[in-house]
């Protein structure tokens, strides 16, 4: 008599999605009451997101920018939603996948920092156009070619992601200052950028799953709608954001970059904090699926993605609760705590085998911390980095992360010399080290520093 073993496919309960998004809604809805009750005591203003009085010009500017940023996030999401399944469709083996990704990491390492500097010199608006053009070219390549070069696609996508990491933030901050909006309103835009980016990533996954259900019946790449969104974004930039962009002289820029970025130890600490979160995020998206399905466990992976991104959205909504005032160094302990919790979450995963439910919970905690850290780092950059050097500083800070990802892909993905647990542990240790960097940044901030920003 045979025994039939029923294998259960693990998936999160539907109430999980409702719970996450209800928490996000509650956090945003209750924020004005907290701002009004605590703002008077601290001498700060209410959140500009809910202030409909004299801030109407700022709200118009903010909404136009967030619309463009959401379109850009949809492009990023559509290109990465299928991951290794798209590589497998083109007949790429696992070792070749690692080398293709390594080529993209190498491009980000050697070309990415130069793109940030070029963005500062020619103006961030042109860098945003470059981001859209890269996605447009990638979409056209995949549409006209039945078997596109995955090497070219990986390099173009990696360069587009590098440009995305700094161009829109730099452009927003520059336009914010040029239009004369209040500096404390920047914090609202920073957390909304993370929130809308996360929401756009979830939406892009849903769109991709709706349009492309069966690889076996002919695969129409997600780059096709991404190319359409790129065209819409280019037209939107030309119509709504056609103001003159200030350009820098190369010689003057080089002296300023050397003085304010390379020779300032506070910037080095901030760069490590940025690099560590970028490296850990890259490693997470490479290793999260192999970690969860280890030992032959069956999981609906596509249903876990909204949980992770929803946790990131929730983390971003926590930012204005702790950074509601005018920018002054006083709440860095929350950022340090977020780094420590994120590092410990990954460290537990790397140290010991966990049940699927525990793994998902730890990964959600990690993403909630990431959602809080990202706008916090943008706020720190506003405090320490001159606007005309912002793109170069961000791209410069991501170079160590790109180098680490390149090493991991070659030694771990291709040569199999690094275990997944060791790679995850390295990412966790980097986050814990970043917490120490923020602590040092807080201590050194009490020392006098040059006044780089306009009052």
From TrEMBL:
Under Gene Ontology molecular function, one entry of this record is:
molybdate ion transmembrane transporter activity
Gene Ontology cellular-component annotations: membrane
**Classification via InterPro entries:** MFS_trans_sf (IPR036259), MOT2/MFSD5 (IPR008509)
> Which keywords are on file for this protein?
Membrane, Transmembrane, Transmembrane helix
The organism's superkingdom is given as Eukaryota
Give the transmembrane region(s).
15-33, 95-115, 127-144, 150-168, 218-237, 267-288, 303-322, 334-351, 357-377, 389-410, 422-444
UniProt cross-references to Pfam families, sorted A to Z: MFS_5
Q: Per its UniProt record, what SUPFAM superfamilies does this chain match?
A: MFS general substrate transporter
Record-given protein name: Molybdate-anion transporter
Q: Say which species the protein is native to.
A: Elaeis guineensis var. tenera (Oil palm)
């Amino acid at each position: 008599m045979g025994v039939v073993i029923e294998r259960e496919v693990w998936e999160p309960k539907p109430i999980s999605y409702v719970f996450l998004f209800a928490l996000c809604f509650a956090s945003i809805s209750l924020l004005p009451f907290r701002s009004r009750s605590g703002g008077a005591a601290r001498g700060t203003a209410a959140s500009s997101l809910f202030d409909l009085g004299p801030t109407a010009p700022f709200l118009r500017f903010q909404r136009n920018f967030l619309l463009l940023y959401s379109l850009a996030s949809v492009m990023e999401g559509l290109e990465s939603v299928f991951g290794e399944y798209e590589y497998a469709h083109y007949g790429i083996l696992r070792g070749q996948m690692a080398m293709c990704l390594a080529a993209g990491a190498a491009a980000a390492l050697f070309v990415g920092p130069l793109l940030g500097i070029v963005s500062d010199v020619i103006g961030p608006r042109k860098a945003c156009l470059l981001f859209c053009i890269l996605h447009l070219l990638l979409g056209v390549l995949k549409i006209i070619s039945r078997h596109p070069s995955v090497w070219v696609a990986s390099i173009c996508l990696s360069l587009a992601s590098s440009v995305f990491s700094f161009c829109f933030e730099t452009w927003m901050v520059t336009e914010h200052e040029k239009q004369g909006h209040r500096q404390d309103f920047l914090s609202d835009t920073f957390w909304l950028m993370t929130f809308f980016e996360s929401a756009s990533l979830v939406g892009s996954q849903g769109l991709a799953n709706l349009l492309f259900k069966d690889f076996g019946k002919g695969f129409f790449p997600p780059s096709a709608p991404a190319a359409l969104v790129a065209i819409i974004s280019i037209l939107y930039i030309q119509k709504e954001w056609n103001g003159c962009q200030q350009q820098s002289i190369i010689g003057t820029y080089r002296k300023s970059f050397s003085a304010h970025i390379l020779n300032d130890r506070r910037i080095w600490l901030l760069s490590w904090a940025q690099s560590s979160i970028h490296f850990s995020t890259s490693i997470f998206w490479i290793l999260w699926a192999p970690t969860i399905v280890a030992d032959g466990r069956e999981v609906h992976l596509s249903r876990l993605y909204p949980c992770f991104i929803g946790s990131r959205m929730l983390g971003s909504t926590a930012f204005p609760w702790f950074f509601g005032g005018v920018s002054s160094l006083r709440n860095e302990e929350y950022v340090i705590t977020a780094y420590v919790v994120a590092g410990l979450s990954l460290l537990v995963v790397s140290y010991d085998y966990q049940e699927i439910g525990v793994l998902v919970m730890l990964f959600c905690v990690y993403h909630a911390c990431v959602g809080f850290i990202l706008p916090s780092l943008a706020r720190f950059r506003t405090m320490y980095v001159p606007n005309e050097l912002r793109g170069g500083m961000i791209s410069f800070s991501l170079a160590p992360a790109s180098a680490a990802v390149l090493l991991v892909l070659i030694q771990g993905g291709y040569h199999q010399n690094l275990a997944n647990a060791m790679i995850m542990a390295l990412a966790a240790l980097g986050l814990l080290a970043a917490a120490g960097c923020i602590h040092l940044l807080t201590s050194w901030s009490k020392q006098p520093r040059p006044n780089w920003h306009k009052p």
